[in-house]
Design a protein that fits this description.
By secondary structure, the chain is of the alpha+beta class. It contains 9 helices and 5 strands; from the N terminus they run H-E-E-H-E-H-H-H-H-H-H-E-E-H. A hairpin with a 2-residue loop joins strand 4 and strand 5.
Length: 224
């Protein structure tokens, strides 16, 4: 059985639901026009030296980049697919997380700051996963979820004094905004948006994610 076939069997059923969700939510999760948003000048970078990486960097130099919004329902629907891809390719491919909180979501930027604050204490993945697992509890709410996110930090055993300081810090806010600025310079205005080895990918089938990964790994001499 070929690797794409194995992946297809593992995630095909999930992706079938994701495709329908993406098609529908592409309209509702697109951000409001950003004409009034000021983007800092400078070159755009898809992956920075200190971009957040899920797990360990892969062995081949191949990258899988996702611009995401933790309040985006399509991102939550895609989350298990990305996790399946990580299970198969994680030792060879570097999975990069870029924040892109959409302006219509009250808690998206707050969630990104909570995840970044957890990352500063070595708990990036735990908070990243928790945000998607609990999104139904706070997503699409018009009420700020700062206090709720703090309970997640406590649940993960974080140093709460440090978490509070980081969550409110200009440095963490700037880190999130830097990802937003990079996205806008790249022309990325909706979530989730994927890049495989620097190339934009717009998935409609499982092969649309697997095939570019396989091709990139083959170019890197690491397919199989």
């Amino acid at each position: 059985m070929t690797l794409p076939t194995r992946i297809g069997l593992a995630v095909g059923a999930v992706l079938a639901l994701v495709v329908a969700t993406l098609a529908f939510l592409a309209l509702t999760d697109s951000p409001e026009p950003r004409a009034t948003v000021e983007v800092a000048e400078g070159p755009s970078e898809l992956v920075r030296d200190d971009s957040r990486v899920l797990g360990e960097p892969g062995s081949t130099g191949v990258t899988f980049v996702e611009f995401l919004d933790f309040e985006c329902e399509a991102c939550r629907a895609t989350y298990p697919v990305v996790e399946q891809l990580r299970d198969v390719y994680g030792d060879r491919v570097t999975f990069v997380l870029r924040y892109l909180p959409l302006p219509g979501h009250v808690n998206a930027e707050r969630a990104a700051r909570a995840v970044e604050s957890a990352a500063l204490q070595g708990e990036l993945e735990a908070m990243y996963s928790l945000m998607y697992e609990t999104q139904v509890d706070w997503g699409e709410s018009r009420e700020p979820a700062d206090a709720l996110f703090r309970t997640y930090a406590e649940q993960l055993g974080l140093d709460l004094e440090r978490y509070d300081a980081d969550y409110a810090s200009p440095e963490v806010a700037a880190r999130v905004q830097r990802d937003v600025d990079d996205a806008l310079r790249l022309g990325v205005t909706s979530t989730p948006t994927f890049y495989v080895d620097g190339e934009l990918v717009q998935p409609r089938t499982v092969g649309d994610l697997v095939d570019p990964l396989e091709a990139a790994l083959e170019r890197a001499g690491a397919a199989g």
